[in-house]
Specification:
Strand content: under 5%
Order of helices and strands: HHHHHHHHHHHHHH
CATH architecture: Orthogonal Bundle
Helix content: over 70%
Number of domains: 1
CATH class: Mainly Alpha
Radius of gyration: 24 Å
Low-confidence stretches: 1-16
Oligomer: single chain
Length: 298
Amino acid sequence: MSSATLAPPPIAGKSRSMSPTWKRFRDAFRRHPTALIGGAILVAMVVIALAAPWVGTVDPLAVFPSKRLHPPSAESWLGTDMLGRDVYSRVVYGARVSLIVGLAVAALSTLLGLAIGLVTGYVRRLDAVVMRIMDGLMSIPSVLLAIALMALTKASIGNVIVAITLAEMPRVVRLVRSLVLSLREQPYVEAAIAAGTTLPRILVRHILPNIVAPLLVQGTYVCGSAMITEAILSFIGAGTPPNIPSWGNIMAEGRSLVQIAGYLIIFPGICLSLTVLAVNLLGDGMRDALDPRLARRM
């Protein structure tokens, strides 16, 4: 018996090549290291937000009048505010609010926009009515629409998420609708219609897989926009309540003291800018990885 006959069979999984999607992601991150940097910053922010009770030095709501407006030092790394509260702990806990709002708005806007866009893009009788409603919502700037919606309710994180979702959803609906309008004219969709395939099956089997990639990219931009909108709402007093630390209301409390305690605005502003920049860089990397036309150009 030859040695080739006695050779052990190959181990399952070792000869399996990398999937095309993951290969495109790997190549895109190699071509765009800034996307990898953005992902690393975003992961770090998420870890800090989750570990806030252990990373924070003191209770963010603890008041120490004798330590009010102390500059950054070894005891208070980012200084204290006008009530003596530790700014570092408040900024760490504020990451939770921004990330929760950003991720929740991105998820809700994507799911609602996907459902509405799929139906309106394929069912022509609903298209005119629904899109006129979306156009009416888009005619109002998202910040003003969110402010108007928050004026009708009380300040809370849940109401902020709902208000920003309603302001961001029309853009997702228009994206999905435009993709569906182009995809429903493709030969494979026409063949499925000729074969008697039901509408739900056409949407799920033939349309949905082809719009997931641009939808994920759009979701990252919605997440960054939602963080900025939440900070604006909190800054003007229409967002999260004052007893919940967020980057927006921390900056709002320090705007009257900017000349003597500029760190009250600088540090939460830097955290907000870094997080939004990280989300946008990650979205750019995902766009390059999932768009085959850009991949061929590179």
